[in-house]
Amino acid sequence: MIDPNTLIFDSIRPVLWRDDGLRLLDQRKLPDQEVYLHISSTQALCTAIKDMVVRGAPAIGIAAAYGAVLAAKEASMDSTPGFEEAFQQRLDLLASSRPTAINLFNALEAAKQVPDPTNNLLAWANGWFNEDIAANKSMSKLGAHYLKQGSRVLTHCNAGALATGGYGTALGVIRTGFQQGVIDNIYAGETRPWNQGSRLTLWEFHKEKIPVTLLADSAAATLMKKGEIDWIIVGADSVCLNGDIVNKVGTYSLAVLAKYHGVKLMTVAPTTTINFNAQSGEDVIIESRSAEEILPKCYNQTEVSALNPVFDVTPADLITVIVTEKGVIESPNVSKMQALINQR
After folding, report:
1. Distance between CA atoms of residues 175 and 10, nearest Å
2. Mind listing the pLDDT tens digit of every residue in the chain (344 residues)?
3. Cα–Cα distances in Å, from 302 out to 294, 296, 299, 305?
4. Which residues are part of the catalytic machinery?
């Protein structure tokens, strides 16, 4: 019998520090190939983040933490502007990689506060990495507490080990609920256009032998209408001070459907995902990627265009619970968010 207090299904580590650089699992190649890239410069890391080699807000934050180590190493060898300026230039380069995932900026800001960065940043980055995994495991138990026997859950995008240091946020809760025997069915939406659900979430569950059913994004409403979904469980790329969340585009649609059909919505995100510069979702820059990612090559973009937003905003009043490693917020609002922040 599996001990429910001993977490298993924990074999995936997409971001690791190895040989004075980052070992990144290239998530563009999954599920067909497991390819690892060795990243040893801030420019290469900036490109890897921008090109989706590594994705998911916590994983990007971890990559940025180790990127600061690379930045300090490069700055110490760049005598032209001086260390401080050279270090800041490289942190700014990393910050320019993607605009929405707040963990990226929180990690870089924290890195600036580390004294004697050349000697101390690696130990600090290792701590950031380990704290993320510990937070995921803490959140998984807190979130699984809300799942009743026989729960049927739907997840959107990939908020698993691939999006974090390991174990996952939303998928961490699902892993734990499955291990505890309270989840009957797991559904993963395709999550177009990058198909993080069908490519990455399915890969994670298949790798750890957790049964899962792929669901076409457009079929979610019908499944809810039939009463076959109890919880939608998602991660977040940014949690605002009023409890709004910014997550993969399509989350808002699912939240509206869930409200109509009486389905509960759980957001699972570490406190490193709190955006202290965003009073609400209106204050968050929503990344929009190239039309070429979704537009068939046969079309001339002067005649046929495409909108390709990466994220959308889900208002706090559509969220049942926000789960963090510091505790759970039920029916989130400004005062409850502030009470959580005061615990930090």
Report:
1. 9
2. 456 567 788 989 999 999 899 999 999 999 999 999 999 999 999 999 999 999 999 999 999 999 999 999 999 987 688 899 999 999 999 999 999 889 999 999 999 999 999 999 999 999 999 999 999 999 999 999 999 999 999 999 999 999 999 999 999 999 999 999 999 999 999 999 999 999 999 999 999 999 999 999 999 999 999 999 999 999 999 999 999 999 999 999 999 999 999 999 999 999 999 999 999 999 999 999 999 889 988 888 788 999 999 999 999 999 999 999 999 999 999 999 999 999 86
3. 15, 13, 9, 7
4. 237
**9: alpha, beta or left, given left = phi > 0 and alpha = psi -120 to 50?**
left
38, amino acid identity? H
DSSP string, 56-122: SHHHHHHHHHHHHHHHHHHHHT-TTT-HHHHHHHHHHHHHTS-SS-HHHHHHHHHHHTSSSHHHHHH
Q: Which of 205, 116, 199, 196 is nearest to 153 (CA)?
A: 205
**Residue whose structure tokens are 């994705």:** 55
Name which of 267, 283, 242 is nearest 102 in CA terms.
283
The partner residues of 155 in beta bridges, in order of sequence, read 188, 233
Which contiguous run of DSSP H or E holds residue 327?
strand 327-330
Give 239-284 as a 3 state SS string. ECCCCCEEEECCHHHHHHHHHHHCCEEEEECCHHHECCCCCCHHHC
Domains of the chain (ranges; CATH) run: 15-134 (1.20.120.420), 137-341 (3.40.50.10470)
